């Protein structure tokens, strides 16, 4: 990713255009550092999402939809009336790290920064409100709470643009890739809930490709992660949405369900509440 100059003091649209010109796909963020929500046409992924999961860009909807998946470097889209209206309301600018060919190690506090300095190779760093973003060249799956105060943002995720930072971005190290293969280091680890989670449904799978399920789980994780209020209700509604789409064909595995539980626990939900919400969602759908 070629780093543009510091554009934090210009308008969100001008910042986005400067990022796009440097190969960084931007998206507008509302107050609270969250993306704009789906329009009615795209609610609950009714539009099927954007057609190509390997490159950033919106679906056929002309609006600013699908969070990270809406990020684009196309100046015609960024300057379209629908996007200009969103940029005028934007409180900040986000970007899709995976679309820019980078991975962000999001360090949320001083302890996490100290761990990174002791564990990871030096790279470009960007100061955040509470910590730092460490930027590496290369992409990988995203995952929250890989250890206390540490998130990985790359493919199928977004990060807030906070300036070019300092230093030179180095190659993505194996030490970072290995973080997503470990059990998350949280107060309530996902391992503790695995025994009560069994695959759901025995019907024929209607999904034509694994990417459809992976995208659905990633969007559900993000919905929980960005919630700022009504966390209990958000978790239940998200579980209900996942089960309504994937609950009857048997394609959900313990690993998929654990990802949802981990996202909920990272927002402060207890194991018991996660289990109750999952059970209630299944009961509502008759599963």
Give the SSE map:
Layout lengths: L11 H10 L4 E5 L3 E2 L39 H4 L2 H9 L2 E4 L6 E6 L2 H10 L4 E4 L4 E6 L5 E5 L2 E4 L5 E2 L9 E2 L2 H4 L32 H16 L5 H16 L7 H13 L4 H15 L2
Parallel strand pairs: 6-10
Antiparallel strand pairs: 1-2, 1-3, 3-9, 4-6, 4-8, 5-6, 7-8
Helix pairs in contact: 6-7, 6-8, 7-9
Structural overview:
By secondary structure, the protein is α+β, with helices and mostly antiparallel strands. The protein folds into 3 domains: 12-94, no CATH class; 98-181, no CATH class; 190-285, no CATH class. It has helices at residues 12-21, 75-78, 81-89, 110-119, 174-177, 210-225, 231-246, 254-266, 271-285, and strands spanning 26-30, 34-35, 92-95, 102-107, 124-127, 132-137, 143-147, 150-153, 159-160, 170-171. Strands 4, 5, 6, 7, 8 and 10 form a 6-stranded mixed sheet that branches. α7 (231-246) crosses α9 (271-285). Residues 51-57 and 184-199 have low confidence and may be disordered.
Rg from alpha-carbon coordinates: 19 Å
Mean pLDDT: 81
User: What portion of the residues fall into strands of 2 or more residues?
Assistant: 5-15%
- According to DSSP, the number of beta strands is 10
Number of helical segments?
9
> Structural class given helices, strands, pairing?
alpha+beta
Which blocks of ≥5 consecutive residues have pLDDT under 50? 51-57, 184-199
Query: Which outline best applies?
Result: globular
| Structural domain count | 3
The helix/strand order is: HEEHHEEHEEEEEEHHHHH
Largest sheet: 6 strands, mixed
Gap between N and C termini? 46 Å
The helix content, as a percent range, equals: 25-40%
């Amino acid at each position: 990713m070629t780093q543009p100059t510091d554009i934090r003091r210009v308008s969100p649209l001008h910042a986005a255009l400067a990022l796009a010109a440097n190969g960084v796909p931007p998206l507008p963020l509302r107050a609270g550092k969250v993306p704009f929500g789906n329009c009615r046409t795209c609610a609950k992924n009714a539009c099927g999402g954007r057609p190509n999961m390997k490159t950033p860009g919106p679906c056929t909807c002309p609006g600013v939809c699908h969070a990270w998946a809406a990020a684009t470097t196309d100046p015609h889209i960024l300057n379209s009336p629908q996007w200009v209206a969103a940029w005028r309301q934007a409180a900040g600018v986000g970007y899709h790290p995976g679309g820019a060919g980078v991975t962000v190690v999001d360090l949320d506090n001083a302890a996490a920064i100290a761990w990174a300095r002791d564990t990871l190779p030096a790279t470009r760093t960007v100061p955040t409100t509470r910590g730092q973003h460490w930027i590496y060249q290369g992409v990988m799956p995203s995952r929250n709470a890989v250890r206390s105060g540490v998130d990985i943002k790359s493919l199928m995720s977004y990060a807030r643009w906070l300036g070019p930072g300092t230093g030179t971005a180095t190659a993505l190290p194996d030490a970072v890739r290995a973080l997503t293969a470990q059990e998350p280091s949280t107060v309530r680890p996902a391992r503790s809930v695995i025994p009560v989670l069994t695959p759901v449904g025995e019907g024929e799978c209607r999904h034509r490709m694994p990417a459809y399920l992976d995208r659905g789980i990633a969007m559900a994780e993000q919905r929980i992660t960005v919630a700022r209020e009504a966390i209990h209700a958000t978790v239940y509604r998200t579980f209900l949405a996942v089960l309504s789409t994937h609950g009857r064909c048997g394609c959900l595995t313990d690993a998929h369900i654990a990802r949802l539980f981990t996202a909920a626990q990272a927002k402060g939900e207890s194991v018991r509440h996660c289990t109750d919400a999952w059970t209630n969602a299944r009961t509502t759908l008759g599963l």
